[in-house]
Amino acid sequence: MSKIDNLIAADGAAAETAQLPEDVKGERRNLGRSVMFSIRLNPDELAELERHADQRGLPARTLARAWILTRLREETGGHGDLAPRVARPHDAVFRRNA
After folding, report:
1. Longest Cα–Cα distance in the chain
2. Computed from CA positions of residues 89, 48, 50, 36, in that sequence, does the dihedral angle turn out positive or negative?
3. pLDDT band at 84; cut points 50, 70, 90
4. Is 81:51 a contact under the CB 8 Å cutoff?
5. The overall pTM is greater than 0.70
């Protein structure tokens, strides 16, 4: 596994074992787990994403995730509970290719 694959695996494992506040435990069974999110891209959009990912030596899904998380961090001003989790994959992807 590459370093980025290890970071993503670690992030996924951390999400699976995240401790939930007492007031939400038992209310939503999968609240602390990672979920799959799919989007549709037309062939040209997918080709462009794959081209950018290839230039960085990454799978397209990893680059797409990093871009989404970057935007979330920008929208929240780097504050809130998501900020540290968003920073890990973002920094791993973009420092690796700087």
Report:
1. 46
2. positive
3. low
4. no
5. no
Q: Hey, what amino acid is at 92?
A: A
CA angle 47, 44, 61 (to 5 degrees): 40
Q: Which of 52, 90, 50 lies closest to 68 in space, CA to CA?
A: 90
Q: What's the mean pLDDT in 83-93?
A: 63
Count the alpha carbons within 13 Å of 75 in the hemisphere toward its beta carbon.
9
Distance separating alpha carbons of residues 31 and 10, to the nearest angstrom: 18
Of the candidates 71, 69, 96, the one whose C-alpha atom is nearest the C-alpha of residue 15 is 69
* Integer Cα distance of 72 and 15 in angstroms: 17
- The CA distances from residue 9 to 50, 59, 62, 75, in Å, are 21, 14, 12, 25
- What distance in Å separates the CA atoms of residue 63 and residue 89, rounded to the nearest whole number? 10
